[in-house]
Design brief:
Helix content: over 70%
Largest sheet: none
Length: 97
Amino acid sequence: MSRPGAGTHLHAIIKKYTGDDYSPTCNCRALVKQMNKHPPQWSLDNMQKVVREMRSEATRRHWWAKFALALPGTTAPLRWMVREAVKLALADITSGQ
């Protein structure tokens, strides 16, 4: 069985804080798949791209109101989520899960 990647962890974090799951109109699955396809470090190296896509979805789906972690326009909570997802994916690799 394959272990979850940073994308899977990121999706779980977003769902935890917003209650939102995949929607038929989001690009979430594509982003998760792309993040999972690469080692966790890829998500950090491509943080700007990942955050840009997350920010677009957050604005479209009104996540800012759902998890008041920061004012709209800041990327700090999104960057934290990506780093947290990478940390969880690396822990999975280290534990041999």
